[in-house]
Amino acid sequence: MTHACPVCGHGGATALAELRDVPVHPNVLWDSRDAALAAPRGDLVLAYCPDCSLIWNVAFDPEVLAYDTGYENSLHFSPTFRRYAEELAGRLIERHGIRGKTVVEIGSGKGEFLSLLCAKGGNRGVGFDPSYDGESDAVQRDVEFVRELYSEASAPPRADLLVCRHVLEHVENPTAFLTSVRGAAKNADTVVYFEVPAAEYMLRERAVWDLIYPHVSVFSESALRRLFQRTGFRVLSSGFSFGGQYVWVEASPTMAAPLAAGGAATPELGRLVASFSATLAEERRTWGLRLGRGAGAPEACVWGAGAKGAMFLNQVEGGDRVGHVVDVNPRKHKRFVPGTGQRIAAPEELVTSPPERVLVMNPIYREEIEETLRSLGLEAIVEAVGGS
Ligand SMILES: [Zn+2]
After folding, report:
1. Which candidate, 108, 109, 124, 116, places its Cα nearest to that of 160?
2. What is the pLDDT of residues 43-65, one digit of tens each?
3. How far is the CA of 227 from the centre of ligand 1 (A)?
4. How far is the CA of 217 from the centre of ligand 1 (A)?
């Protein structure tokens, strides 16, 4: 491949895998089966940088990604996810003494996390999100929303904590984005926290259904650190969270010269990358076999109609024949999965036609789902897809 790495500029990218003809909005649900089947599609042609270990889609076209109103991405209906957000907010407040201060969030969505940070620490919050529709699930007095990109012109004069979660992986040019954030973050003592899905988890746990079109990049810890160092930040610390699924970095804007690049790509990641194309093919085939084929095959239920569920249904052999798709988020019910067209049901609906197998789209929700199944009096074989 002849593409230069968008993080470190290295010119020796290797081909990782190709996912052709996948729905470009795996998070967008449709109002009819026909509309869902006709959902727009695109290609993932994934490259890997052997220097910083970034993974990115060289076929990405931002033109096909105009978000529409069907976008539903709130994870806050899950107790597991809420607990994670609570713990993270508490940790950031404690570690950096964020009390009675100003918290800025880039890509604040409906403001759930920002409101948490403000409520827990008595802080004032400013959320930046051009797609904010004026509807907050967690309205709070000290939180305001700005329907603009965070920039030198729109940034408030002071930010004690600058948070940006699950945004960077959507950005076509992460170096330009971070350079502009660095230009807007004027206080040297600002703590900057960024969090994205981790390449390490995707590769090690064979979480191949996490690869989606809106994610232009999949960052490893070393790629994330390298990006911050190259754009004028000092990396304070970095690590993994949410069962290893997310990688985060804490940094501060600094006038000092960036430190030497830390955390080069590991040989282990290189090995996983080399066999990844085969891994993807194997996952498609083996899950296809477990779904069963033809008449009399056990009825399977896919639990989780988020991006991962949509990618699984679209990529696995025979995924379009899966009968049940359920989700705990009531906003998804009676809507349809892009590409394969299943109608999404509430868990309670399973009582009328119990599935033999429940495929959990994210292993971290397994206990929560088993609990729900028990409370509904359902006995099904529960299997987690992608991850242990
Ligand atoms: Zn690179």
Report:
1. 124
2. 999 999 999 999 999 999 988 88
3. 9
4. 11
